[in-house]
Specification:
eight-stranded mixed β-sheet, 448 residues, single chain, alpha+beta, five-stranded mixed β-sheet, elongated, binds histidyl-adenosine monophosphate
Length: 448
């Protein structure tokens, strides 16, 4: 029968044979975030459209061109989250985290949805690991989240990522800057795309990250915001740099980073790679001191970042970064006949209760077919049981790596398995480059 439908353009399946790599990246990120005091938050995949219009900004590409928006059956306008920050802020306010001791630190792993043109490293459904820190204006926090992102990349042994930072100021310095931008772009208004002609009036900074080739060419010569910072923003940026320096975190000040979302103020940063093509920004973030109050809360200086997990995976694969191996089953039980099948069910249950991975053939095929299946599953040990083994109460446990067979009692199977697999693991250990002599453990007091 023909396939009913294919996956939607810009989406990607993760298959069982590769999912351990995703799990490794995610567990590493969560683990490091926890060391910096971040606890996981889980928010819904869809929110009221208005949250993103007000949060991300209605002159951004994300809101104007890329959101998956629809009316639900109750006539509400709903949007699949294009990013994680707005939902995290909504939850922070709605659930009263804002009344707890500040700063509140949360992290998340989420799917995000943007209707963009798919290409390497750019999907319509993608995943982010992100952190948000609510309620601190200290530049210490800016340097700390950058250190957190860097620590994740270092632990994953990602190389050649450059950290680029900038300050885009506060509303005070932004007013002067907008005037300068308007002046600059007005001179070439006719050449701008229709969206940017509209942005020129409403939010000229957004022209700076327009993806249209003509607008981005014109934007190259535009004034840069760092030249318009007020004293407070300048001082903040200097302190961020100082706190990065003291941690030996290398960075480049890139005055052209403005980020594509409206909520940013002061520090913005990106980790960029040139090993994965045009979509080289693996992580982006910064401060958003006005977002919490724009969404109905008290004024709460905050900041965060998100890294694209698919881009990170691409980069790690391109650089041959180490991944742990996929886990293998500890035991496969080949069972022949009804009695042995019942025994196998019981042994699997006992083994799993002790934390081992134990499998048997649910299709009850021939011994040969079961052996082949066990081989495919790459189980570390095999055992074959039939009527004889069940009646006699013993069977042979085969180590599939060495081929070695050991007699094992079925009524004390789990402890027997534990001993055999432990001694084989110890024998595998090498001490000072020589094979470890397991027997020496028992040579007490120099006796032979
Ligand atoms: P963003 O720069 O829009 O920021 O996205 C963060 C990261 O998500 C990007 O650096 C990229 O790695 C990944 N990404 C974005 N779009 C796609 C796509 N279409 N396909 C694959 N990966 C993509 C934010 O989303 C902010 N919420 C980050 C933040 C958190 N700022 C403060 N807190």
């Amino acid at each position: 029968m023909a396939l009913i439908t294919k996956a939607i353009k810009g989406t990607k399946d993760v298959l069982p044979k590769e999912v351990h790599k995703n799990q490794y990246i995610e567990a590493t990120a969560l683990d490091i975030a926890e060391k910096f005091g971040y606890k996981e938050i889980r928010t819904p995949v869809f929110e009221h459209t208005e949250l993103f219009q007000r949060g991300v900004g209605d002159t951004t590409d994300v809101v104007q061109k890329e959101m998956y928006t629809f009316d639900d059956k109750g006539g509400r306008s709903i949007t699949l989250r294009p990013e994680g920050t707005a939902g995290a802020v909504r939850s922070y306010l709605e659930n009263g985290l804002c009344n707890e001791t500040l700063p509140q630190k949360v992290c998340y792993i989420t799917s995000c949805y943007r209707y963009e043109k798919p290409q390497a490293g750019r999907l319509r459904e993608f995943h982010q690991f992100g952190v948000e820190c609510f309620g601190t204006q200290s530049p210490l926090a800016d340097a700390e989240i950058i250190a957190l992102a860097k620590s994740i990349f270092d632990t994953l042994e990602v190389k050649d990522l450059s950290l680029e930072i900038n300050s885009i100021g506060c509303p005070k310095c932004r007013a002067e800057y907008h005037k300068a931008l308007k002046e600059y772009f007005s001179a070439r208004k006719e050449e701008l795309c229709p969206t940017c002609q509209d942005r020129l009036e409403r939010n000229p900074m957004r022209i700076l990250d327009c993806k249209s080739p003509i607008c981005s060419e014109i934007a190259k010569g535009a004034p840069v915001v760092i030249d318009y910072l007020c004293d407070e923003c300048k001082e903040h940026f200097e302190m961020v740099k100082k706190y990065l320096d003291v941690q030996n975190i290398e960075y480049k000040v890139n005055p052209h980073i403005v980020r594509g979302l409206d909520y940013y103020t002061k520090t913005v940063f990106e980790f960029v790679s040139n090993s994965i093509g045009a979509q080289g920004t693996v992580c982006g973030g910064g401060r958003y001191d006005g977002l919490v109050d724009a969404l109905g809360g008290q004024k709460t200086p905050s900041l965060g970042f998100a890294m694209g997990l698919e881009r990170l995976m691409l980069l790690m694969e391109a650089q041959n970064c180490p991944f742990p191996e996929a886990s293998k089953p500890d035991l496969f039980i080949v069972a022949l006949g009804d009695k042995a099948t019942l025994k196998a069910v019981e042994l699997c249950k006992d083994m799993r209760a002790e934390g081992f991975t134990a499998l048997m053939d649910l299709n009850q095929r021939s011994v040969r077919a079961q052996m082949k299946y066990a081989d495919k599953l790459d189980a570390r040990y095999n055992i074959v049981i039939g009527d004889n083994e069940v009646n006699e109460g013993t069977a042979k446990l085969k180590d599939m790596t060495t081929g070695e067979e050991t007699e094992i009692a079925l009524d004390t199977f789990v402890s027997g398995f534990y001993n055999i697999s432990l001694s084989s693991q110890l024998a595998d250990l090498e001490i000072n480059g020589e094979e470890f002599d397991f027997g020496s453990l028992f040579n007490v007091g120099g006796q032979e």
